[in-house]
Amino acid sequence: MKYLYLGATADTDHEAFAAIGSLLTAEFGLPLRPLELPPVDFAFDARRKQYGSIPVLEMVSRLCPGDAVKLVGITERDLFIPVLTFVFGHAQLGGRAAVVSLARLRQEFYGLEPDRQIFLDRACKEALHEAGHTFGLVHCPDRSCAMSLSTRVQQIDQKRAAFCPACARRLSRGVLT
Amino acid sequence: MKTHWRILVVDDEAVMCESLAAWLREDGYAVDTASSGHQAIEMARTVDYAIYFVDLKMPGGLDGIETMMQIRRLRPEASIIIITAYATVDTAITAMKEGALEYIVKPCNPEEISLLVNRTIKVKNLQRENTILRKKLTRQYRFQDVISKSPRMRAILDLATEVSSLPSTVLILGESGTGKELIARAIHYSGQRAPKPFVAVSCAALAETLLESELFGYEKGAFTGAEQQKRGKFELADGGTIFLDEIGDISPKLQVDLLRVLQDRSFYRLGGAEEVRVDARVIAATHVNLQEAIAAGRFREDLFYRLNVIEVRIPPLRERREDVPLLAQHFVERFAHELGKDISEISEGGLKVLMDYNWPGNVRELENAIERAMVTCRNQTLGEDNFAFLAQNGAYAKGWAVPPSMSIQEMEKLLIAATLQSVEGNIKECASRLGIDRSTLYEKIKRYEIPR
After folding, report:
1. How is chain B split into domains, by residue range?
2. Quick check: A93 contacting B, CB < 8 Å?
């Protein structure tokens, strides 16, 4: 039996974790298993005051259990890759591991009033997006598809927590086998 | 179509290189990486990358600016984006002066890179489309773009090149679809009249009266519906060339009118009393055997001699089969772009089908066959199956093979019978095609008891 693993560090928002779990189970039709991830302090970059997503992704990849189809890791930390100011998430394209950062998905990060629902929706969409990359999907030109590229939260808000018909077809054609 | 564009990321720091490459791959691009300027230049020699992301500071004697300059020498159209962690006004100015598309400071906002890549690819797509359209336009008009390796065709092209600079009338003979208009256009656009109009008229497509008004124009009130004066094709071609296609199909009256224009270089518009003088070079073409038409009284001999100052005879495709693979590949490339299909070649089996086919419709039929095959093809290669429709229309000639046990006499009998049939019993033509004289042919027909 193969499982879709959803991992999280201890401080991760529980409600977001549960919402992501429900969505991924429904979208991929795979049984879900939770996994606690160790802290990601080792990836802290003091100069940038952020966490390197490459070492975090490497850790998630190392921890991926043998019976895992994929492992999607969730962290509250703000992630970056060296060339970019930040990333919402990072995945091995066609691989087994992905990581999602919740840090920039809250309204309060941008000095706005907190909004739980908006935060949970964004978390679900980003987790589905990064999981989609592990299944080999690339960015989709359909702005309402979960696989469309988001470089701002407004773009996350524009898309749905689901794949467009074209990405869904690509997914069903072979990525689950 | 994103994967058609390749991107090269050049940085001596592997983590920089790989993280940017991975991020771009998620966007659907094919991305390669190079860890030095030298490696990047070597890679640019073999692959035409759409975008180069080049780090400014790299060790090994070749920094980002120098790398960019060398890449631009190899690929003048390259779009190069310089990335640096140490931005100074001087380096930015130097980079832009040396032709960098953009100068970005890392870490940069993901949106900035995303917009930059999208904008560059859009420009690349437009540039590519422009190049293809330009080629398409000029290809119709230049001799060097006529696709052929047949010695007969090369001789024809040499003759056409020579006559392009002369004012003489040209008669182009050839079956339908052999490219008569293509040659006519090439003659026009290679000569001194190139800046002036090339006006093509299909004489077979119009009824006699319509053709007359098309060619010579009409005055206001010349006939019901002639509400204003209209200039004809001869006038429109003044200073340039008029191409009269299917000249063998025009009526006896128009033959007379045309003869007058060729003799006097002047004519009257329909319903007009004023003589109109024109300087238009005439290139005529026909698939009809004009000698036979003259013998049958359907075509004026004097007009024939006026038109036939320089004769260009284009062989049918079946007589220059060596051109089939070249033409077929050309059409595959053209339709791959036009139909947006990822098909690049024809299999050996597919090519054999094309070589064995007789092509009664010549190059135009081949062009249509390739388009039809590409529409239905689901692979990257056109195979035998995609040309199955050719077998159904009767012009499919099985590949010829030497029969295993046949005497020379039997072979000769079959050859004479087949040739006689193809010329419908015309002894003179049959003897000419076989390269023997008529008395020998009569003697062999009698000896082999070949029915006539």
Report:
1. 2-136, 151-313, 318-393, 408-448
2. yes
Question: Residue B359 is inside which H or E element, if any?
Answer: none
CA–CA separation, A125 and A146 (whole Å): 6
Per-residue confidence band for A177, with pLDDT thresholds at 50, 70 and 90: very low
Say which of B2, B15, B26 has its CB closest to residue A133: B26
Residue B4: what pLDDT?
A: 64
Both structure tokens of A98: 């992905």
Number of Cβ atoms within 10 Å of the Cβ of B105: 14
Best mutation target, B19, B57, B108, B115, to test chain A (most A CBs within 10 A):
B19
Q: If you count DSSP H runs as helices and E runs as strands, how many of each does chain A have, helices first?
A: 5, 8
**Which residue shows structure tokens 């009249």?**
B193
Nearest of B316, B304, B187 to residue B255 by alpha carbon: B304
Of B26, B28, B110, the CB nearest to A84: B110
- Beta-carbon count within 10 A of B424 CB: 8
Q: What is the pLDDT of residues A111-121, one digit of tens each?
A: 999 999 999 99
The whole-number pLDDT of residue A25 equals: 94
Cα–Cα distance, B101 to B93 (Å, whole number): 12
Name the region of B199 (left: φ>0; alpha: ψ -120 to 50; beta: rest): beta
Taking residue B342's Cβ as centre, other Cβ atoms within 10 Å add up to 12
A175 pLDDT more than 60: no
Class of domain B408-448: mainly alpha
> Rounded to an integer, what distance in angstroms lies between the CA atom of residue B281 and that of residue B284?
10
A158 close to B (CB below 8 A): no
So what's the pLDDT on residue A86? 95
Nearest chain A CA: its distance from B352 CA (Å):
35
Active site residue A130: yes
Q: Which residues contact B91 (CB under 8 A, 6 or more apart)?
A: B56, B65, B84, B103
User: Which CATH number applies to B151-313: 3.40.50.360, 3.80.10.10, 3.40.50.300, 1.20.120.1200?
Assistant: 3.40.50.300
Q: Is A139's CB within 8 Å of B27's CB? A: yes
pLDDT surpasses 50 at A176: no
The two domains B151-313 and B408-448 share their CATH topology (first three levels equal)? no
- How much is the pLDDT for B394? 58
CA of B9: which chain A residue's CA is closest? A83
Cα–Cα distance, B66 to B282 (Å, whole number): 57
Report the gap between the CA of B110 and the closest CA in chain A (Å): 6
Q: For domain A3-138, give the fold.
A: Collagenase (Catalytic Domain) (3.40.390)
Say which CATH class B2-136 falls into. Answer: alpha beta
B18 vs A contacts (CB less than 8 Å): 54
- CATH top-level class for B318-393? mainly alpha
List, for chain B, all residue ranges whose pLDDT scores fall below the cut of 70. Answer: 1-4, 132, 134-145, 393-405
For residue A151, give the chain B residue with the closest CA.
B111
Q: Which of B2, B22, B109 is closest, CB to CB, to A85?
A: B109
Global pTM value:
0.56
